[in-house]
Amino acid sequence: MQKLQAAVTAVGGYVPDYRLTNSELEKMVDTNDEWIRTRTGIEERRILKEEGKGSSDLGAPAVLELCEKRGISPEEIDCIICATVTPDLVFPATANIIADKVGAKNAFSFDIGAACSGFLYALTTGAAFIESGRYKKVVVVGVDKMSSIIDYSDRTTCIIFGDGAGAVLLEEDKEGNGIQDSILKSDGSGRQFLHMKAGGSVKPSTVETVLAKEHYVYQEGQAVFKFAVKGMADVSYELMQRNNLTADDIAWLVPHQANLRIIDATASRMGLPKEKVMINIQKYGNTTAGTLPLCLWEWEKKLKKGDNLILAAFGGGFTWGATWLKWAYNS
Ligand code: UT7
User: Fold this and answer.
1) 3-state secondary structure (DSSP) of residue 184
2) Does the CA dihedral 108-112-116-121 come out positive or negative?
3) Closest Cα to atom 11 of ligand 1
4) 255-281: per-residue pLDDT in tens?
5) Domains defined along the chain, listed by start
6) Which of 1, 98, 149, 186 is 20 to 30 Å from 238 at the Cα level?
């Protein structure tokens, strides 16, 4: 029996209106536009400012947009998987809340936490549901409201992150397009370099943990940078090698937008020119699980049926990976 193939058949995205620029950050911490641009490539990021709004409020419009584009009702969705490290609540899952907000009454839904690689993990999981033949329409959301866990007096992290969401619909493809191969990796010993110190079961929230600012992202930037450059470039190259793909075969690299220098290193290891690399870090910064689907959302009109895309990510955990997919439609 021929293997069922899972393909992306629609993309939605959402970013909040508020733009936090480098010049505004200059007024908040000891930094400058030149440093931020040359070290990271970031010029501005979007921030969800409205009180009482969380990641589900970013994810829900992205899901509604893809339903409209595909001409389906949310009630037709079988499953919603949400990748996030900034859930609305510790529980229930943000995917449950998104399903409720969009009216996906017939979907089961759950979250995946794999930080910046979350979208790749969720995409691979969602694809397996389609490939199994059990489900017809699976929505994968990558979303983070990073501003909710960033210390805006810490210049080493506040310049990097932003808020945003992207979502894709996965359906069966009968023409051989869709997700071809994935390599996912993790190494929990890397947690010391990138984590949140309190608020989990080891160190529940107390007045002391709040005063000690332990509910914000803690990152040892240089250490993470070294692992990220190697991890993202190596895994993308490994995926090419094991599928006999050359740089000429690849139409687009869709890299996690953590740092322009990490993206450049990955593209160069793969032998890809800059024109084949999706880069929007200058506008959105690092939206964690949101970066990859936000790239697909922005580039959707340029993508052609049959295009080979390599998606690659590296993030907290450590987690990292790469996915090869053949684009399944012309918009
Ligand atoms: O997506 C999840 C995974 N995360 C990543 O992939 C992030 C990986 N890391 C990075 O992208 C980079 O390490 C950063 C962008 C976080 C930092 O860049 P860097 O080139 O590694 O800088 P650094 O930490 O080595 O700091 C260099 C200098 C230091 O000053 P001294 O000690 O040389 O005097 C810092 O204190 O830059 C200073 N510095 C800043 N200066 C102006 C650190 N942050 C800032 C800042 N503005 N915002």
Assistant:
1) strand
2) negative
3) 259
4) 999 999 999 999 999 999 999 999 999
5) 5-179 (3.40.47.10), 180-326 (3.40.47.10)
6) 1
What is d(CA 310, CA 260) in angstroms, rounded to the nearest whole number? 17
Give whole-number Cα distances, 279 to 17, 275, 283, 286, 301, in Å. 20, 10, 9, 11, 15
* Helical residues (DSSP H) of the chain, grouped into ranges: 22-28, 33-40, 55-70, 94-102, 118-131, 155-158, 207-211, 221-242, 260-270, 281-284, 291-299
Alpha carbons 130 and 239: distance in angstroms, whole number: 22
Question: 98 and 289 in contact (C-beta within 8 Å)?
Answer: no
* Cα 301 from chain centroid (whole Å): 20
Distance CA 16, CA 87 (A): 17
Q: What is the pLDDT of residue 330?
A: 97
Active site residue 67: no
What does the pLDDT look like over 88-101, one tens digit per residue? 999 999 999 999 99
Annotated active-site residue 82? The verdict is no
Kindly name the residue from 116, 158, 280, 295 that is annotated as catalytic.
Answer: 116
- With cut-offs at 50, 70 and 90, classify the pLDDT of residue 1: low
Structure tokens at 63: 């899901």
Question: Helices 291-299 and 118-131, interaxial angle, to 10°?
Answer: 70
